[in-house]
Amino acid sequence: MTVSNGPGPHEQPAQEQPGPDETRAATPSIADLAAGYAEKAGLQRNAHGHVDILKSAGGVQGIAESIVPGLVFLVAFMVTRDLPASLVAALVGAAIFTVVRLVQRRPLTQALAGIAGVAISAWLANTTGKAEDFYVLGFYTNVAYIVAMVVSIAVKWPIAGLLFGFVRNEGFDWRKDPERLRAYSIGTWVVIAVLALRLVVQVPLYFMGDAGLAALATMRLIMGAPLYILGLWIAWLLTRPAPGQKRNRAVQPSNPSSD
Question: Which of 68, 122, 157, 161 could bridge to 184 as Cys pair (CB 3.0-4.6 Å)?
Fold first, then answer.
């Protein structure tokens, strides 16, 4: 009897094949992809697995980051009527939040995006010499979001479903249910309505020039984060599954990371 102590010089040792459980663990599920998309979009869940509206809007600090630079610009311009100085004041206000996040050792993504937006807005206003052009970038941003959301509904991938489907542990299974697909389409239309309302109210004020500047700035503050939170909350309520409706439990709710 020949006893082999190992593979010969031309033989390769047998490699252990991964089991089916390991293969499934290595391959991201649809629910995992949905969760990743929602988290990148800034949607936050609370400990009970429900959408956290305030955190999804960036928290108190995130809301302040979106409001303060525009408010500083308005006050500075109304007091001094000096456009360059007012634009610098707005940039300084945005930069302060970046420094605060550095001190807090918190992610800089939101603060950097905010200061970039303020910088572009300041450049537009300084280039044209019109104070109202500080707010024109928001119009184009709203139009881009509206177009993207309308397209998402048309191709039966409504944005509300991609976001809320993660929070409700549905993954992408909601697309197989015509009622859930319709509900998420309606929820997306709610967000579209919020964005469209901003344009309906603010664009006429913009074309009023200097006379409409104070009203335009005020509407930007009111119809910014506060209106977004309200629209998101209404969309969440309108897209609630009916009692007893089957839902995918592939993703378990987890505590959101603090922002």
Answer: 161
Instruction: Enter the tokens of residue 183.
Output: 């509900």
The answer to whether residue 9 scores a pLDDT higher than 60 is: no
Q: What pTM was computed for the model?
A: 0.71
Q: How far is CA 92 from CA 86, 95, 126, 145, in A?
A: 10, 5, 16, 28
Alpha-helical (H) ranges within the chain are 20-26, 30-40, 53-56, 59-80, 83-104, 109-128, 136-154, 159-167, 178-207, 213-222, 225-238
Q: Which residues have a Cβ under 8 Å from the Cβ of 54 and sit 6 or more positions away?
A: 60, 229
- Residues 84-101 have a mean pLDDT of 89
Nearest to 62 by CA among 201, 229, 188: 229
Determine how many CB atoms are found less than 10 A away from the CB of residue 233. Answer: 14
